[in-house]
Every structure is written in C-alpha cells, then in structure tokens.
Amino acid sequence: MNIKIYTDGSCIGNPGAGGYAAIILYEDGRREEIIGGESFTTNNRMELMAAIIALRKISPHDNAELFTDSTYLKNAFTQNWLDNWKKNGWKSSKKGAVKNQDLWKELDFLISHLNVTFHWVKGHAGNSLNERCDKLARETANKINAQSARSENFNTPTENVKPQSENVSTDENGRTWSGSQLLLFDE
After folding, report:
1. How far is CA 50 from CA 87, 98, 182, in A?
2. Which residues are catalytic?
C-alpha cells in the first residue's frame, strides 16, 4: 500500500509545552490524524515524535512518503546524519553528544524495518496538509501549556486536596493526583 504522511511539531517557549501532529493518507482513501504532546519539551523533539507516532502505524509492506517542514528530521535520513552519528558513537560533527538520542534510536529502528522516503516542504507556505499538522500541533501545545499553567499556579495546602478515587498518588512536589488530574477543593 502507498501511504503519504505529513508531520509537524510545535513548542511554546522551546523548551516548554509542546505538541505534535501527523496526518496519514492511505491509498484506499482513509485519512488518520494523530496528535500528542508533552508539558516540557523542545520543538525538535516534537518534530521527531510526530514522525515516530506515524511510522508506528504503518506496515513493513507499505511504501511511505513522509513530508516534513523540519530539515532536522529530513536531513538525518537524506544527508546521512544518522549514519554518521552512529558511526561516531552518537557524537555530532562538533564532537558533542547528539541531542534526542532516544528518539533518533527509535526512528532508526522504525526506518530499518520500513520503506520510507523523506521530503521537505516549506512550512507556512500554503501546503494544506502541512498547515493542518501545524494547526493541530500548535493547538495541542497551547492546551498542554494552559493545563500546565493551571496546575503549576496552585499553592494549596494538602488538607484541601481530596481524592475522588482509590487510584491516588503524590508526585515529587507533594501534589496529590488522581489519574492525571490535580483535584483541589476550596473549603
């Protein structure tokens, strides 16, 4: 099956709250949109995550074209950056440690089992699918940023925190969480 993938990442503050998005277009006409993000990350990590999350969805029998506005992502595969990093013990051409090794290693594993061709598209230049990914990634980053800001702005004594369920944990900052939400009650 022939597949086209569009990806983008976004970050508020860089580092800061980030979002990623991928659109997968299947040969049979199906379209899948995938979003995600992290509360403290970088734009480059979100660009890589967008590719990873999309590539996890395809089969080794598929032929995929991945379109990205990230030269960081594209050049790693089209200009042999990734191969050179591996040969040099995960050191860059400037002899420093390659950033985002965890994600590069996962991408390397995925690509080694898939047939993927990388293409660069100019961002914010009217490509509707790239623009859609950008919008989804930015919206996700903004939502995560707003949620993080709300939870970080609480300075409430623990006696005002009341769990709604048995599945309650306390993080390293002493905040009590149920699932992924901080539960606060004014008394």
Report:
1. 25, 19, 28
2. 8-9, 47, 69, 124, 134
